[in-house]
Amino acid sequence: MRKFHIASDEDIKSGETSDVYYLRTKKILEAKGLASTKVVAEATVSSLPKNWHWCVICGIEEEAHLFEGLPVSVYSVREGTVVPLRDIDGLKIPVMRIEGAYAAFAHVETASVGLLCQATGVATAAARVKIAAGWKPVYAFGIRRMHPAIAPMLDRAAFIGGFDGVSGVLGAKLIGIKPSGTMPHTLILIFGNQEDAWKAFDEVIEQDIPRVALVDTFYDEKVEALMAAKLLKDKLFAVRLDTHGSRRGNFADIIREVRWELDINGFKNVKIMVSGGLNEENIGELSKAGADIFGVGTSVSNAPTVDFAIDIVEVEGKPLAKRGKLAGKKQVWRCRSCFTWKVTLANTCEVKCPRCGDVMDPVLEPLVEEGRIVKDLPKPQEIRDYVISQIKHYNITL
Ligand code: PCP
User: Fold this and answer.
1) Do domains 9-121+304-330+363-393 and 181-301 have the same CATH topology?
2) Which of 9, 139, 216, 257 is the most exposed place for a label (fewest CB within 10 A)?
């Protein structure tokens, strides 16, 4: 009996998480002798949430495992590729292409779209928060807001988007890093006072874990910050302000006051970490006010999904697409120098950047060939580095 309302790997690969109309389509094609009909299908971003004009493609590793073993071939952009909504001619950009008999992958079309939609939303929201925070350290604290079954995926996507660490134990294992965290109010409440809790943390927790004292439980933040600094002295790495909404008032000014209080008392090295209700709109002001480190939860783990669609663009080698979509198998090109993109038919050999004249590189690369994963799937750290390098190289802004 299933304890949690979640799908297993086998459920996902066997089509148990499919929309039923794809399974009925497969049944009809098989009944009518069309099961071997070859198609080319492409995944494109139909629209981006809010005022986003680019997204960080995430979920490609899971796509590889989804199509592994099926008699199809898949081409995709590298995981972590930052893609604008449209190319230089205003065309929507395919980020993944599937080639083979439609009946061979109909049962995983739903899952394939879902793998891209949510992870890309989270990774993009994370990248936007990092840009808004001026690239200061940001940690993912948001898995508590979502179903635990997807906690590793959420943490991985936030890390790929540029976050510096994640609070989730399994997510951190998946990424290959140590989980990050400070202390909850619970610890202080159970000890009944701040100092015994801070001291206990210092006595019990491994020495390589930064000592970050939570300083908003009972008294004013600047009072508790000074108490913690005087108690832990050089061992105190930072103080965390997770001030309750009812007391938050002008949070930026509270941060300035805490900074001032620590500095005039000789604790210039103690950093200020803030968390609770942070997002790309409010984090910049808190960073300017003196916050050094951020814990971001809901605004990233509950990020809007990116609206991908998978559409057939060729049947038995003939370009064919529904209204609103561009027929024919495509390749996508990105300029080496400027963030210019161009969509062409797949048989195009070379493209020069219409904007700066530099060489453009084809970005749809083989991922799965006839059911075999042919790409060395990069580690999350490599993907994260790739994301940050693109944003800095192309000077990508919010
Ligand atoms: C929460 C916890 C997370 C924060 C808030 C995520 O604080 O510390 O870091 O917040 P967000 O989802 O609004 O971004 P509490 O609920 O006070 O929990 P705790 O006492 O465990 O820190």
Assistant:
1) no
2) 9
- Separation between Cα atoms, residue 130 and residue 127, nearest integer Å: 5
Tens-place pLDDT, residues 114-154: 999 999 999 999 999 999 999 999 999 999 999 999 999 99
pLDDT score of 75 more than 90: yes
Q: Hey, what are 93's tokens? A: 């950009």
Mutate to test the pocket of ligand 1, among 141, 187, 280 (most ligand atoms within 8 A of CB): 141
pLDDT of residue 1 exceeding 90: no
Domain segments of the chain as ranges: 9-121+304-330+363-393, 181-301
What's the rounded mean pLDDT across residues 151-169?
98
Which protein residue's CA is at the shortest distance from atom 1 of ligand 1? 276
CATH architecture for segment(s) 181-301: Alpha-Beta Barrel (3.20)
Q: Which helix (H) or strand (E) holds 264?
A: helix 251-264
**pLDDT tens sequence across 260-311:** 999 999 999 999 999 999 999 999 999 999 999 999 999 999 999 999 999 9
Which atom of ligand 1 lies nearest, measured to the CA of 279? 14
For the chain, helix (H) and strand (E) counts, in that order, are 15, 18
Distance CA 99, CA 42 (A): 9
**Is 298 close to ligand 1, i.e. is its CB under 6 Å away?**
yes
Measured from the CB, is residue 44 less than 6 Å from ligand 1? Answer: no
Q: Which residue is closest in CA terms to ligand 1's atom 21?
A: 184
pLDDT at residue 101, as a whole number: 98
Residue 292 in tokens: 């050094």
Which segments of the chain are extended strands (E)? 38-47, 54-56, 72-76, 82-84, 94-101, 138-140, 165-166, 211-214, 236-241, 271-275, 293-296, 307-315, 318-319, 330-335, 341-345, 360-362, 365-369, 372-373
Cα gap 160→63, rounded to integer Å: 16
